[in-house]
UniProtKB/TrEMBL annotation, chains B, D:
Residues 3-126 form the NIF system FeS cluster assembly NifU N-terminal domain. This is FeS assembly scaffold apoprotein IscU /modular FeS cluster scaffolding protein NifU. It comes from Paracandidimonas soli. GO terms for molecular function: iron ion binding; iron-sulfur cluster binding. It comes from the Bacteria. CDD domains: IscU_like.
Length: 388, 127, 388, 127
């Protein structure tokens, strides 16, 4: 990479914090033992590091370390949670409830359940991106065995009212899974105070490495789950495979730092995010996607009417942003999340997601506020819809 | 998507963006695509007495490749006679701009807009 | 870790080659992009690195890079191969064939298939650990849809005759999966020359990082597979989830080095392995487990009669070895692999696996040959069976 | 498994390993476990005229904890009278050696071998 663009795509992935890198590297060559090696110091040291990291992850969300299972990322966590719980509970019912704006890593496992003969309800959201709680309550049936709702949306950054959702599920005795991939380190989570049975995490949205994640699987009261990857019975039998010590140590350190620095980080980012938001929403025909208040300060998703999102991004080689989620930006379909909040195709096509994070500076925002309006104007001059 | 140098050149520096008066008898206006599909190309040609295209103008809504194709179209159109203009097709745009397969659609919009502009001009002449 | 023991447990995991570490680190903080981010240079760079690594992995086994799918390790690769192929082929038959001495990451998915209503045959091996090819052929039925045989055994190091097995499967038109986790970089593999449909790899037995692996999925002729992790459709739709660039780069570099250095490495290790083997098999009542010739030079598995393996390891804090596979050493069961080759419980309990690798030195072997016989003698003096 | 300092002390430096002549009338020999199970403890005691155990010897096959427990058993046995010896149980070994739960079995072997040795001695005395 020559001159590096300003990175405003923290929702796609974050840099690994240099302190996390430092924590990881010694576990590659020097302390390389297999945590499953019970017969020598290389293995014991690795196992100890793994358990310490587990405690760090648990601490960020006020959970018991024993309830944390390592996975290869939030995609796998979601798969294990949804397909694993559905398989374990199939004798009680075959209906699951989720939301139309979930990440593909939740929607696709639910579609897989449909293929297996389960029934899945994909609830719509309100125009602000939030779940209508009455509608949610009404969707729960006697044979509903599982609900899956994300905490923070990856595209539009809205925060669902998980406490209320958990209370409703609790009342009905229905297991709740929460995809918290975008929430860790941004939103306070207290798993002792909230009745959530399963929660998915990954490291790479919280300044840890890609390819490592965790699933919280509550033990008290016990959540039943069927393993999805078999082979030796690591991780309470839920997830087999050699534990990648360096990755786990990285996630542990990232979550330890998140706990330590979340308050300060988020305070600083709220100011930067506000400036960016005010600057861009001040332009004509620019709309905010997702609720104005119930959102993380780090995410700004706008629709810039009369021009197209990809063209706008291409006009901004100095800034790395995305249009919709990183996972769907390659396709020509407009974002299903923006469609779900009722945006027209045209406004969905014209969306831009700017997401900031720990390493975003004042100067980055200055540059964005200088470049983005300029390019919006330039493209609008080219647009057949602007003059008309 | 990493764009070709050809796309970037046109995209960063579009040629002949603008509007001609569509009411004029020697101006043909063509448009392709739709806002719902995420891309629209509008091309206009002003045909001189000798049958050659004197001016071409475009407006485009869509991805960068669409804008680049529309811009390139105006360059190719200016100075061409109508018969030559009529055979400009999407394959030519794909090649000239090194467009990847997923961007075929953008090239087709340019082709369709050219055809529509020529058709509009010819209609006017027949009236 | 204070003074580090001599590491003779390369079959459990290997150190990450320092050159691999150097290749990985820049992808953590500096080039941290998500390979799925199609809208900016961070993503493009990461994607390019991923594709280069894919080519390196493919090159080691003479495969087409497009046939390589990234996974989180050989356990996941085996699960995807076995459960994914069985699901895709269930309409053709419901019988799978594997071998009793496979890794748990093969056996457990096969047991899972049994729970799903498939029938699995676990073939016995000969006393040398190798598959009897006549017996193998006889086990294949009209409704056999999948065969899974490992190339190099993780406990006893024997090399199955995969070419012959592939030829038999080819004749019968049966899909063959090969777990090559222990083989990459030790045994020449040519996927153009051998008709193998699926092959599992991981990085961490070949001087790459833990938590990354690959599955070779042949496209010509096409192998059908059902995804096991859903969510966005990365990796030809077979395996969703954000690709961990640094891990993938690490595996690529490790496999590139393996291709480059395999011949030299294995020549040097053959000499060291021979010295270790001759030294230990020269002691009374010490037996080699697994075929004497059809084995990798890096693995030495012995049974030391009259004493118990765990006690022997405990006597050797200066040397890191294992007794049986790292995955089962915590349990009190004797190794199922040693039982499968016909060892008595007593000899199974008394086994020791020594495995050497790239960083093993002459001095390491000297030390092992000094310490191990001494401790064998000491423990035998304490044993009620030695004097009797 | 990371062993306790107590286990390592006994294991590295076993006390009273060896054999007494099992034919002698004042020697009791007890054995527990089996080779097939992966662990055997043999304990021998030589009882003095005052009813105290003068010498104790062990041989053991099994994991390090088993060897350590057998070694510790001989230490406890020497100087003890038979009644005191008879109440030594696995819990005492678990505690003294800080054995983890998976190593309960090793402690039970030591207990069983003690009981067997005392029984053997008492049988001989009754004859
Ligand atoms: C909300 C959400 N869930 C799941 C995922 C997928 O997790 P991973 O990238 O660890 O596979 C992501 C990010 O890609 C996400 O934003
Ligand atoms: C033969 C074999 N297959 C599979 C595995 C499991 O692979 P991973 O450690 O990548 O989960 C191993 C090693 O643990 C192995 O030796
Ligand atoms: S118009 Fe969207 S791809 Fe070109
Ligand atoms: S005898 Fe094997 S665990 Fe103690």
């Amino acid at each position: 990479m020559s001159k590096r663009p300003i990175y405003l795509d923290y929702a796609a992935t974050t840099p690994v914090d240099p302190r996390v890198v430092d924590a990881m590297v010694p576990w590659l060559y020097e302390n390389f033992g297999n945590p499953a090696s019970r017969t020598h110091a290389y293995g014991w040291d690795a196992e100890e590091a793994v358990e310490q990291a587990r405690a760090h992850v648990a601490a960020l969300v006020n959970a018991d370390a024993k309830d944390i299972i390592w996975t290869s990322g939030a995609t796998e966590s979601n798969n294990l949670a949804i397909k694993g719980a559905a398989a374990a509970l199939a004798h009680q019912g075959r209906h699951v409830v989720t939301v139309a704006t979930e990440h593909k890593a939740v929607l696709d496992p639910c579609h897989e359940l449909e293929r297996q003969g389960f029934e899945a309800t994909f609830l719509p959201v309100m125009p602000n991106g939030l779940l209508d709680l009455d509608r949610f309550r009404a969707a729960l049936r006697d044979d509903t065995i599982l609900v899956s709702v994300m905490l923070v949306n990856n595209e539009i950054g809205v925060i669902q009212d998980i406490s209320a959702i958990a209370a409703i599920c609790h009342d009905k005795g229905i297991l709740l899974h929460v995809d918290a991939a975008q929430a860790s380190g941004k939103v306070a989570i207290d798993l002792q105070a909230t009745d959530i049975g399963l929660m998915s995490f990954c490291a790479h949205k919280t300044y840890g490495p890609k390819g490592i994640g965790a699933l919280y699987v509550r033990r008290k009261p016990r959540v039943r789950l069927q393993a999805q990857i078999h082979g030796g019975g690591h991780e309470r039998g839920f997830r087999s495979g050699t534990l990648p010590t360096h990755q786990i140590v990285g996630m542990g350190e990232a979550f330890r730092l998140a706990k330590q620095e979340m308050a300060d980080d988020m305070q600083r980012l709220a100011v930067l995010g506000r400036r960016l938001r005010d600057g861009l929403l001040g332009l004509p025909d620019v709309y905010l996607n997702g609720d104005a208040d119930q959102r993380v300060a780090t995410n700004l998703n706008i629709s810039v009417d009369h021009i197209e999102g990809e063209a706008l991004m291409m006009s901004l080689p100095e800034i790395a942003v995305s249009s919709g989620s990183a996972c769907t930006s390659a396709s020509l379909e407009p974002s299903y999340v923006l469609k779900a909040i009722g945006r027209s195709d045209a406004l969905a096509y014209s969306s831009l997601r700017l997401s900031i994070g720990r390493f975003t500076t004042d100067a980055d925002i200055d540059a964005a506020l200088q470049l983005i309006p300029r390019e919006i104007n330039r493209l609008r001059e080219l647009s057949p819809f602007w003059e008309d | 998507m990493n764009y070709s140098a050809e796309v970037l050149a046109h995209y960063r520096n579009p040629r002949n963006a603008g509007t001609l008066d569509p009411q004029l008898p020697d101006v043909g206006t063509g448009q392709a695509g739709s806002r719902e599909q995420g891309a629209v190309v509008r091309l206009q040609i002003k045909v001189e007495d000798d049958g050659r295209i004197g001016q071409a103008r475009f407006k485009a809504y869509g991805c960068g490749c669409t804008i680049a194709a529309a811009s390139l179209a105006t360059e190719w159109l200016q100075g061409a006679d109508l018969d030559k203009a009529a055979v400009l097709n999407s394959a030519a745009f794909v090649e000239a701009l090194s467009l990847p397969p997923v961007k075929m659609y953008c090239a087709m919009l340019a082709e369709d807009a050219i055809q529509a502009a020529i058709g509009d001009y010819r209609n006017k002449q027949q009236e």
